[in-house]
Amino acid sequence: MDAAQQEATARARELQRNWYGEPLGTLFRRLIDDLGLNQARLAGVLGLSAPMLSQLMSGQRAKIGNPAVVQRVQLLQDLARQVVDGSVSAAEATERMEEIKKSSGGSVLTNTTQTTNSSGAPTVKRVVREIQSLLRSVAAASEILEAADALAPTHPELAEFLRVYGAGRTSDAVAHYQSHQS
Q: Where is this region: Disordered (predicted)?
């Protein structure tokens, strides 16, 4: 690799760090390790070609162009955290990865909870996950927490919102949402 290629790769990795919180090579390797996948399987779940995944991991390409793929990455990160903390078994993780693979980028079922109620209205959990997804698509958790810290002295409620939805657990965000209704 010549100096120009090395510089382009370093620039792409820095952009990835800004957009996704870390270089995609690091993020994807952690997903592979935590979920027991290989690169080909990860590419399949995400809806990427194997060469595209390789280019993103190596820094030859900086950005994931498809928002549905970004959403799947976020869903896999959530799933990997649950596998690591033991709240989801390997068998459940395999089932959930199939759901994520089939998703078009919107929220998918994360357990037996339905995403809509009998009237067709979205459930609280679905609304919360959409808010989380939107926040996490514009900034990394560390950036959201930094913004929350900056807002806290003058706008504590807004800072709490950013912390809970931008960097917190879905269950905490659901509780926050429900406590602020009516």
A: 102-121
